[in-house]
Amino acid sequence: MSNSTPRPSPTVRQHETESETESADETTRCPECSGQLITDDEHGETVCRECGLVVESDEIDRGPEWRAFDSAERDSKSRVGAPTTNMMHDKGLSTNIGWQDKDAYGKSLSSNQRQKMQRLRTWNERFRTRDSKERNLKQALGEIDRMASALGLPKAVRETASVIYRRALDEDLLPGRSIEGVATAALYAAARQLNNPRSLDEFAAVSRVEKMEMTRTYRYIVRQLGLEVKPADPEQYVPRFVSRLDLNEEVEREARALLRAAKDAAVTSGKSPVGLAAAAVYAAALLTNQKVTQSQVGEVADISEVTIRNRYKELLELDHGELVQ
Question: What keywords were assigned to this record (predicted)?
Fold first, then answer.
């Protein structure tokens, strides 16, 4: 005897096909007049072509939110892939192979697969830095990112510093100067341009070059590239000093008022902005009855107590109240 399952007759198969066709027609037909349904992508609705009945509304629009009228405009507006960035030597356009030896499901790779991935990483790294210029740029941008992280500088400053270094490299300003020196000068200039300055001593603490070389390279880069760098405003240092000393907003307001008065009286001319800001914070803390010592302010601002005392006495002469020495 044969235990095979009997096959459905052609008539049964025909009825099944007809029922599937009818159910499909029901989803594309209007439930009121059996007219044809169309999708209005602009309003996110499914309506009947004949009677105008709205069958579905608030549909999800899975298309782009922009319009394009030719292929070139469509390609320029497309946002497929990661955004480009000046903080990477290849602007982030190359392939990046992760260091984890795991597959997409989180499972560990076999020994043969690990060896294969290591060879791919090696060749990928060689193709990413094909010449000395790219290797130079990669090392410099790594230095900029390292120093910016240590100084707590935002992404905008890092991007600007990367652009400045690229300009210096394109205009052949690096011969005779170290990569670290030009990178430090570019980051210092970018921080000044975006009103987020740091003192030279702070840069010297995280840089791999001496302070003298850094200042010399900075002046050369600014002069050759024609960078517009305004003199640092002492008020730009106040919020950071107040935050590090755990003082309140009242101290910050009073310190800003002292610095504005000193600026109007032309006391700030030729003075270090860091020293003026530290002295203003110290004076403002005393005016608001908050205890802070000159050594604490000097440690935060990375300047000597002598500088704070000298600038503090100059602020005293402006007659801004009875300050306690």
Answer: Initiation factor, Metal-binding, Protein biosynthesis, Repeat, Transcription, Transcription regulation, Zinc, Zinc-finger
Q: Rounded to whole angstroms, how far apart are CA atoms 169 and 221?
A: 11
The model scores a pTM over 0.85: no
Amino acid letter, 263: K
Instruction: Name the token pair of 128.
Output: 């990413």
d(CA 165, CA 187): 9
The domains of the chain, with CATH numbers, are 20-56 (no CATH), 132-225 (1.10.472.10), 234-316 (1.10.472.10)
* CA nearest neighbour of 133 among 92, 168, 185: 168
35 close to 49: Cβ distance less than 8 angstroms: yes
* Residues sharing a CB contact under 8 Å with residue 58, sequence separation 6 or more, in sequence order: 44
First to last CA, the chain: 114
Q: Is 313 annotated as a binding residue?
A: no
Tell me whether residue 30 is annotated as binding: yes
By CB atoms closer than 10 A (0-12, 13-18, 19+), residue 198 is buried
Rounded-to-10 torsion of CA 259, 262, 263, 266:
-160
Kindly list the distances between the CA atom of residue 208 and the CA atoms of 7, 181, 191, 264, in Å, as whole numbers in the listed order: 82, 8, 18, 39
- Environment class of residue 117 by beta-carbon count within 10 Å: exposed (0-12), middle (13-18) or buried (19+)? middle
> What are the backbone angles phi and psi of residue 102, rounded to the nearest 5°?
-135, 155
Residue 24 known to bind ligand: no
Q: Is 82 annotated as a binding residue?
A: no
**pLDDT tens series, the chain, 325 aa:** 445 555 555 554 555 555 544 544 556 788 888 888 888 766 778 888 888 888 887 767 666 666 777 777 766 666 665 666 777 766 666 667 777 888 778 888 888 888 888 888 887 777 667 777 888 888 899 999 999 999 989 999 999 999 999 999 999 999 889 999 999 999 999 999 998 888 888 899 999 999 999 999 999 999 999 998 888 888 888 988 998 898 888 989 988 988 888 888 877 777 888 889 999 999 889 888 888 888 999 888 888 888 888 888 888 777 544 444 4
Q: State the Cα–Cα distance between residues 164 and 190, nearest whole angstrom.
A: 8
